[in-house]
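Bench notes, afternoon.
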Amino acid sequence: MPKWHAPHRGSKAFRRCRAARIYPRVSTWPKTDKVTLLGFPAYKVGMCTVYEKVLDPRSPWHGIERAVAATVLEAPPVRVMAVRVYTLTPYGYRALTEIWTHQIFDWERKYLARVFPLPKRIDEKYVEEKINQIWNYFDQGLINRVRVLVRTRPGLTGIGQKKPWIVEIQVGGPIKEALEYALGLLGKSVDVTQVFQPRQYVDVIGVTKGYGFQGVVKRHGVAIPWRGKKKKEYRAVGSLGPITPGRVFWTVPRYGQYGFFRRTEYNKEILSIIPLVSDFIEERECFLPDELEQLKKMRIELAMKYAGVDDPSKLPRRFIMTFAPKGGFKHYGLPRNTVLIVRGSTVGPPKRMLILRHPVRPKRIIETEILRYYYGREEIGVRIIPLPS
């Protein structure tokens, strides 16, 4: 007779615990010598099909055209609001001090003051004093980590969210160079193209879709017995355990909360990055005057490139520049900012914010050539949609 084998259903490797908040907190950052931000927030748009040709001669699909699933992410620029430095103590890393930008708009202060105890006096003199204090800490050898506090710009997207979120992102590289880089970004906008490049791996951290209270079959994958088995319950475990000891072990699958878990997916390849600039920037968000003029100029240049014209007067007076099918992505709409195409699927439903992080365990990239993108049976690309004046 064959050996009786009935292992536990469901993995015990994950904490089935509801996330504390809808956007994730990054607990681990990779060690790198490159001076750059190690993460960037993005919003999940939906999925598409990418047709690619494998160029790697070592791959069994060399020279073959294949269709792969991919996820579309929208990454509007973020603004660096503060720089925070950490020191190593016997109890772990502790925040030493932080410096906020003195260029805080009233609209930003309205939301940030609810979350952070902002300094009462933030001006150029305050910034200068804080910078001198931070460099004194560096000379004493107290600074071990440098991180920045960035705020998201959901108003540039079409998800309908107005309140910005604050995300803490670590700066890679040696401490001195990282500190100089972070202080140089204070109060400025950062685009995703300054952090990531096409054909590189990223770790995607997010919160999965929530399903509420579920039973053991959906939550743990417990097998349903045949209908002829005389049991009081069919969608339940066969036994809660032995008589002795008289308790239920934690390894026994039980019903409860399922979904809305914080999860990390390692090594998701960025297939391509499509730069876009949102429309009506001055109405949707707050920018510094020089940044606003630069974005407007970049928007016209990108629109001319995608439309194939050499004269700005040939463009519509008002238009939307997007990467989407006709009618937009289901449950999302039209992405209007820089779009990232990531191989495979990612956690969470559309409109949920994810954090892309430089990989902590990278692997070798397989060289491919992107041929075209499809959403269902419709081929998609960058489109210029004219609006009524």
